[in-house]
Amino acid sequence: MKHLFLVMCCAASALVANAQNVISGTVSGADGRKIYLFDDADNNPDDSTVLQKGQFSFTIKQPSEPSVFALILEGTDQPLLFVPGPTPQQLTLSADKFPIATTVKGNDNTKALQEYQVLFQPLIQRAYALNQEASGISGDDEAAKEAFRKKAGVFSDDVITTGKAFVQQHPKALASMWMLINELRPRLKPDEFAGLFAGLDKSLQTGKYGQSVSQYIRSQKLSGIGEMADDFSQDGVDGKAIKLSSFRGKYVLVDFWASWCGPCRAENPNVVKAFNKYKGKNFTILSVSLDDDKNRWLHAIKQDGLNWTHVSDLHGWSNEVAVQYGIRSIPSNFLVDPQGRIIARNLRGSALEDKLGEILK
């Protein structure tokens, strides 16, 4: 009986792995436009179809475990998130409201993701407005940049408040894991992030997204304030390896950035100012770039006047040092003391200069 039970389980697993399900629907006002299907593996569409009478239908091979997929309507910039399941799902939408659906006939995970997207629409509109405002600020207008930082800080606080409430109210929904990873991780302190994760259902914690989050939490603990900074080695602009430990005896700001990162480039003048003020007082900077194009990287260094040590493996977000330290958003930094211990994190704006003034009197 035991042997038979194991065989039956294996057969059932095979059926689940090969099962297919359908998501279909109608998007009014979108005839002739394409709608694309994406999985969570990369940014390349798995499938697409041209809407005829606003209708679409996709057949999806059932993932081995619950996973977030997306539909993107041509001409829009927000994805509609859903979770494939064995029961067919149906959506009713309009092009001008995409990705918010009028009706959702789907599983609980898809419904929770739609609730999440509805909840975040006002915040997304505020983000668009902030981005527009940022693009209009002159590079030498320090007052405008400081005012913008305050607005951005209020916005981030509102995202945290909204996101935390959702996660706490939906501990079993895959939407909460998605919220935690994409909205809250860049904004929460490591301990607070870990606490929210611990409150999720065990099935989420042990799933593929949960395993990734667990690895991130471990990396944050390794690089927390008061911890010895993990050593690393990466090639500099001349191709020669540079180790973090080679700066032992100095205060070192380890700064993660990229030439393509707008907020990083906007923050660079503050970093340059702090460097020029304290470089003669046992302080230096080691910048780790998440670029994948060497020419763009070197051009940005010169253009922004970043006259300190730079390293990169030119692997973009897969940069080994960024992965080692669990960096999921940039700009990001941490300050290391002469003994190699981390004493501060994410010093931005005037905070970096203030901290250096406190310790380098």
Quick recap:
This protein is 43% helix and 20% strand.
Overview of this structure, please?
By secondary structure, the chain is an alpha+beta fold. The protein folds into three domains: 16-106, Immunoglobulin-like (Sandwich), CATH 2.60.40.10; 117-222, no CATH class; 233-261 and 268-359, Glutaredoxin, CATH 3.40.30.10. It contains eleven helices and 15 strands. It has helices at residues 2-18, 108-135, 142-169, 174-184, 190-198, 202-205, 208-222, 262-278, 294-304, 320-324, 351-359, and strands at 20-28, 34-38, 47-50, 55-61, 69-73, 80-82, 89-94, 103-105, 233-235, 241-243, 251-257, 283-289, 309-311, 332-336, 342-345. Strands 13-12-11-14-15 form a five-stranded mixed β-sheet, covered by helices on one side. Strands 4-1-7-8 form a four-stranded mixed β-sheet. A four-stranded antiparallel β-sheet has the order 3-2-5-6. A hairpin with a 6-residue loop joins β5 and β6 (80-82). α3 packs antiparallel against α4 and α8 runs parallel beside α11 (351-359). The N and C termini lie far apart (76 Å). Mean pLDDT is 90; it is low at 1-18.
Residue share in β-strands: 15-25%
Termini Cα gap: 76 Å
Instruction: State the CATH architecture of the largest domain.
Output: 3-Layer(aba) Sandwich
Enumerate the strands of the largest sheet in spatial order, edge to edge or round the barrel.
13-12-11-14-15
**Mean pLDDT score:** 90
Low-confidence stretches: 1-18
| CATH class term of the largest domain | Alpha Beta
How would a crystallographer describe the biggest sheet? Answer: 5 strands, mixed
- Assembly form of the protein: single chain
Secondary-structure-based class equals alpha+beta
**Continuous helix count:** 11
Tell me the series of helices and strands, N- to C-terminal.
Answer: HEEEEEEEEHHHHHHEEEHEHEHEEH
CATH third-level topology of the largest domain = Glutaredoxin
What fraction, in percent, of the residue positions are helical? Answer: 40-55%
Q: Give a count of the beta strands, DSSP E runs of length 2 or more.
A: 15
